Every structure is written in C-alpha cells, then in structure tokens.
Amino acid sequence: MKKGQSTLQIGKNGLTEGIIENIKTYFKTRDNVKICLLKSAGRDREKMRGIAEKIQQELGEKFTYKILGFTIFLKKWRKVKR
How many domains are there within the chain? Predict the structure, then answer.
C-alpha cells in the first residue's frame, strides 16, 4: 500500500537531474509529490509551467501535474490519462 504525499523544494539551482531522480524514487512509495518553487528559483509562471512539463516528460504518461500558487502537485495514475 502506498503512502500519502512527499514534498520537495526547487531553489536557485533550478531543476536538476538529482531532483528528477528523487521524484522517481518518491513515486516508488508515494502516490503524490508536492514540489515548492522557492523565491530564489524565480517566481515566473511560465518558468513554473516549463518545469512541470519537463518533469512530466521525464516521468512518463502515467503522471499528471497541477499548479496551485507556486506549488506543483504531481500525481501518478494506474492507467495512462488521455
């Protein structure tokens, strides 16, 4: 049985391979991952959308994201969402 949600923060270094690997690791034991974008990473909506889309591409089609404020919520589905 999978547990709830895990939280990550993206800072001034932006989205790195290490963060993507951490996200993949969290999804082995979690259903959802919450990613907070810190002020040092920049507070640009388009940049946030780009980060979320890049994460989704790296993870695959089973994952969806939702942006709320300066937080990205990632969810893993059992089946591919269309």
Answer: 1
Q: Which helix (H) or strand (E) holds 14?
A: none
Q: What is the pLDDT of residue 54?
A: 94
Q: What is the pLDDT of residue 41?
A: 86
Closest residue by Cα to residue 65 from 2, 15, 11, 1: 15
Please state whether beta strands 63-68 and 3-10 pair in parallel, antiparallel, or not at all (unpaired): unpaired
pTM: 0.85
Give residue 62's domain range.
Answer: 3-76
CATH number at residue 72: 3.30.110.60
